[in-house]
Amino acid sequence: MKPLKLDHVGIAVEKIDASLPVWEGIMGIALNGVEEVAEQKVRTAFLPVGGTEIELLESTDPEGPIGKFIAARGQGIQHLAFRVENIDEALAELKAKGVRLIDEQPRYGAGGARIAFLHTKSTGCVLIELCERKKS
Length: 136
Ligand code: ZN
Fold this sequence. Notes:
The protein is of the alpha+beta class. The chain has one domain: 2,3-Dihydroxybiphenyl 1,2-Dioxygenase, domain 1, CATH 3.10.180. The protein is built from three helices and eight strands. It has helices at 16-26, 65-73, 87-96; strands at 5-13, 33-37, 42-49, 52-59, 76-83, 107-108, 114-118, 128-132. An eight-stranded mixed β-sheet has the order 2-3-4-1-5-8-7-6. β3 (42-49) and β4 (52-59) form a beta hairpin. The site of zinc ion (ZN) has 6 residues, from β1 and β5.
């Protein structure tokens, strides 16, 4: 597998609005939009910077992945997402190498991207997302 780029850094936050002063105010990165991803039980805010993005993740349900993350570990960096050309091929290759996958099949994330998470047991406790975006 050859990741194309670091697509985004996912940061779990209690409230997007309360976090924007850090990213917009201190860091000077403009908010590009907010989207709810019902399946993931999150609201997602995008702040593009230098060909990658900061992705703020606010839970909409305490039982969702971000709600559980914040309950266990508090706010902070939650995942790194790498863009790949073909996510089906990447997952097949990783599976053949014995890498544990959270998502055996890609699902749809924010912005219509096809995404899949690798299991932290196989990645040194770093939650890694693969992400394939439609060519525009
Ligand atoms: Zn992500």
